[in-house]
Amino acid sequence: MAIDAEEPDRRDFLTLAAGAWVAVGGAVTLWPFIQQMNPDAGAQALASIEVDITPVKEGQAITVLWRGKPVFIRHRTPDEISSAKAVKLDELRDEFARNDALPADAKATDENRTKSGHENWIIMVGICTHLGCIPKGQALGDAHGDYNGWFCPCHGSHYDTAGRIRKGPAPRNLEVPVYDFVSDTKLKIG
Ligand code: FES
Description:
The chain is an alpha+beta fold.
């Protein structure tokens, strides 16, 4: 049963890899495919990528590959931001931010899941914290789940607009990688 559940997401991952080829430019484009075929420690060490986010309009999202993982980059709408900020910590299943740039005990506020001054962007590793499927919610027409964020169809996990687990079997919020804004339109991940 588990194999059946994973197969669609394996295909999704390959689709995303192809999408990332289009979505990001320069040196970034070659290395994810090399990484997928031949992962090693040396390649891991080089895994810092820059992404031009100029084309990503409000309400849109792209997925790039970083260290062989899909990374979701979403340009949030004002409604998505305000609904994320309105959530009280005691409503959350996972109280921790899971932000690699913050201490492990940082709380899962929207502020701790985004960057100050850039709250309209959410950047997360797009791997469900249950059993590793890739949640839906990036592509046009995708299901977004009950909390208008991301939905993992493998076993029904629902994430909100800050990528926090709200319903279903996943135990943790989606991981926020270390990233920075090189400029208003360029993002460095890793
Ligand atoms: Fe099981 Fe996502 S992998 S809900």
